[in-house]
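Quick one: DUF1905 domain-containing protein from Deinococcus aluminii, structure tokens please.
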Amino acid sequence: MSHAHYEDRVLYQGDVWVRLDTLPRLLAEGWRRTLWAGGVVSVVRTPFQWAMGSPVIEIETGGYMGDVGLYVPEVQLPEALALLQGDGAGETFPG
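--- reply ---
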């Protein structure tokens, strides 16, 4: 499977969002649950679209499961990194 490329920083809905990592969709959705539980907003970017919510029906019906970009608002980056490190997820944020 080819590795998708996602920008490190993007403008989305008028705010700067920072890519935490590029990872398989299922893993990204797990990280999103950890972030959500800690009060951090996140969004997944597939090669086709942005996904604010976890589209369970898409996952269950075999929607895009390849590599996605996992983004958080730049202002919440420190919180996001702390949550993921505390979860043992590790992070590979390039910045």
